[in-house]
Design a protein that fits this description.
- There is one protein chain.
- About 40% of the residues lie in helices and about 20% in strands.
- The chain has 16 helices and 17 strands.
- The strands form two sheets. Strands 1, 2, 3, 4, 5, 14, 15, 16 and 17 form a nine-stranded mixed β-sheet that branches. The protein has an eight-stranded parallel β-sheet with strand order 6-7-8-9-10-11-12-13.
- The two termini are about 20 Å apart.
- The structure holds N-(iminomethyl)-L-glutamic acid and fe (iii) ion.
- Fe (iii) ion (FE) binds near residues 85 and 255.
């Protein structure tokens, strides 16, 4: 039996079409390919038709009607939001560090003293797969309620062979069991664990020689990421790890130039990374290199806000021709939020991205940042029927009525999974 869903009467269907093969950059990021007063027809989990109301209506009739009809009068329809950078699977929380930072401690000082990522590592090591699954499941539910239908998820709170594999296995289970799609990244090089504090190169060797082969053998990740930062992993160590990952078929990603200007953007271009993320302190030279190499910038303005830092220079990146995507960076230390819509608000209000650029950056460009540009990120026939109905009369309103959740309905693979803002 064919499962058919029809969304009709939408004030705007924001298709974000025309960029399934390559991300949008420069002025293209403004081009949302909007259909005013339109409808979307889905069948068997895929989009079959998108167009003006009268045409959509005729198309549905030619098929013999739909099982589910959603009236989106006065509302807008967008592609399911895509979050291309999260640390979804971990145990515990770190609200105490917020207080420490308010008293003057810095993020890197806390890490150096064995807190930060290392605190979350201790909690994550102590947790069972089942416990991690339950905690992460709740986070995924919140993502879904905020209109996110695909997330990337990194390991990096295990920092031993078995604990890294444990996190990645949980991510795989979440992908299989939860409606939200989960795309995995191996990030054994998230921090140097306490045991190797005095011999970081030995830890790098373990990442390369012991972790990577196991991750690849169990096919637990598609991407390999490194925290390339002063006092964490050097540019040289990062390059070795990312090149080794490539040998195992893992595509490089980098936490680049987050806290100090460190050459991370340049390294992303050199190793052919699919994305360089953070970039608060990226140099002009690094931006030019990224544009040339086609590296996507994944910007994380909620992290900048939460760390009380100046955000990345989004305008300079867009003007340099770098395709920009947005993400929550969901993690327990520097960005404890599942609200991608809030991140979109912040992109507009703190980085001066336009409301149209913000939509592109959270849909098709985010999809490209995790190698899914042909499957998701736009409303075009053949793509996955991952869609959001927002209770907003136009897309600009999403950035105007900020800090609230305007998600009304979410369709995942053509099925209603959120209705009137609640998970069904
Ligand atoms: O992307 N920068 C490194 N990793 C995370 C933070 C992780 C944590 O603090 O637990 C980030 O900001
Ligand atoms: Fe991160």
């Amino acid at each position: 039996m064919e499962q058919r869903t029809y969304i009709k009467n939408a004030a705007q269907v924001i298709t974000v079409g025309g960029a399934s093969d390559a991300p949008k950059r420069g002025a293209e990021m403004e081009d949302l390919r909007i259909i005013e007063q339109g409808g979307v027809v889905c069948e068997n989990g895929r989009i079959r038709f998108v167009g003006p109301d009268a045409e959509a209506e005729a198309f549905v009739r030619s098929l013999g009607g739909a099982d589910t009809v959603i009236d989106a009068a006065g509302k807008i329809v967008t592609p399911g939001l895509v979050d291309p950078h999260t640390h979804l699977v971990f145990a515990g929380s770190r609200e105490r560090e917020l207080e420490m930072r308010l008293q003057g401690a810095t993020y890197l000082e806390i890490l150096k003293q064995g807190g930060g990522i290392l605190y979350s590592t201790a909690q994550t090591r102590a947790a069972t797969e089942e416990e991690l699954l339950q905690e992460s499941w709740k986070r995924l539910n919140r993502f879904l309620q905020h209109g996110v239908t695909t997330v990337e998820a990194k390991s990096g709170y295990g920092l031993t062979v078995e604990d890294e594999l444990k996190q990645l296995r949980v991510a795989r289970q979440l992908h299989e069991r939860h409606p939200v799609d989960v795309v995995s990244t191996f990030m054994g090089a998230h921090a140097v664990p306490q045991e190797y504090k005095h011999d970081p190169d030995e830890y790098v060797r373990i990442v390369i020689e012991e972790m990577l082969p196991r991750v690849a053998a169990e096919k637990l990740a598609e991407f390999c990421d490194v925290f390339c930062e002063q006092g964490v992993f050097t540019v040289e160590q990062s390059e070795r790890i990312l090149e080794a990952g490539k040998q195992w078929g893992l595509i490089p990603k980098i936490h680049a130039d987050e806290i100090v200007s460190f050459g991370g953007a340049e390294l992303a271009a050199k190793v052919g990374a699919i994305s360089a993320d953070h970039l608060l302190k990226a140099s002009d030279e690094g931006m030019r290199a990224m544009a040339q190499a086609g590296v996507i910038a994944v910007l994380l303005p909620a992290t900048a806000l939460f760390l009380m830092e100046q955000p990345a220079r989004a305008r300079a990146l867009i003007e340099a021709g770098v395709p920009v995507a947005l993400s929550t960076d969901r993690n327990p230390g520097s960005s404890p939020t599942e609200s991608l819509p809030l991140v979109m608000n912040l992109a507009c209000l703190t980085m001066k991205m336009t409301p149209a650029e913000v939509i592109t950056a959270s849909t098709i460009n985010a999809a490209h940042a995790i190698g899914r540009g042909r499957e998701i990120g736009s409303i075009e026939p053949g793509k996955k029927a991952d869609l959001v109905v927002f209770d907003a009369p136009n897309y600009v309103y999403l950035q105007y009525n900020f800090g609230v959740n305007l998600v009304d309905t979410v369709l995942k693979d053509g099925r209603v999974v959120v209705k009137e803002g609640r998970i069904v």
